[in-house]
Amino acid sequence: MVHTNEEIEQQLFILFRRSQAIHVSTRSGEFELDRSIYGILCLLDDEGPVRLGTIAHRFRLDPSTITRQVQAVVRLGLATKTVDPHDRRAAILSLTPVGKETIVNAREHRRKMLYSILGGWTAQQRSDFLAGLRRFNTSVDGWIDAEHEDDAQRST
Asked: Residue 5 burial (CB < 10 Å; 0-12/13-18/19+)?
């Protein structure tokens, strides 16, 4: 008999593979939006202009990794990077009109796909799934925070 945690691990892997398939099949328009570019554009669309450090914190990535990803977004003309007027050492990233149009179209396409995939689910099933995803993501965030605290304590 498979242990529940083993099955969860298997299902998470399948979810990762399926979400990658959804990502690939929702590429549309002029730009290929890899996961990092898509994530950055979604964050900018949701929150407006943000500092690069905020992006790194939200995605729990090293600032150097975010810097490379942001360079790709800027190079494509999907966002602009400007100096933060409140702290000239920091940069702010903002969507360009092309970036806004690109992410709105990509999100619309993905949401239509999800509507089709989940079309046979009841409202309660979709709500339960959403609640489970939110709880899982919150648990992962808490675990990551605890791991980072442990790492910081070990390095001092």
From this structure: exposed
d(CA 31, CA 146): 37
**How far is residue 72's CA from residue 68's CA, in Å, rounded to a whole number?**
7
Q: Tell me how many degrees the CA angle 112-136-56 measures, rounded to the nearest 5.
A: 80
Instruction: Assess contact for 28 and 109: CB atoms under 8 A.
Output: yes
The tens digit of pLDDT for each residue in 54-108 reads 999 899 888 889 999 999 999 999 999 999 888 888 899 999 999 999 999 999 9
- DSSP secondary structure letter of residue 23: H
Torsion angles phi and psi, residue 51, rounded to 5? -75, 150
pTM: 0.81
Closest by Cα among 9, 106, 94, 91 to 48? 94
Beta strands in 46-131 (DSSP E): 50-51, 79-84, 87-95
Domain 4-117 has CATH 1.10.10.10: yes
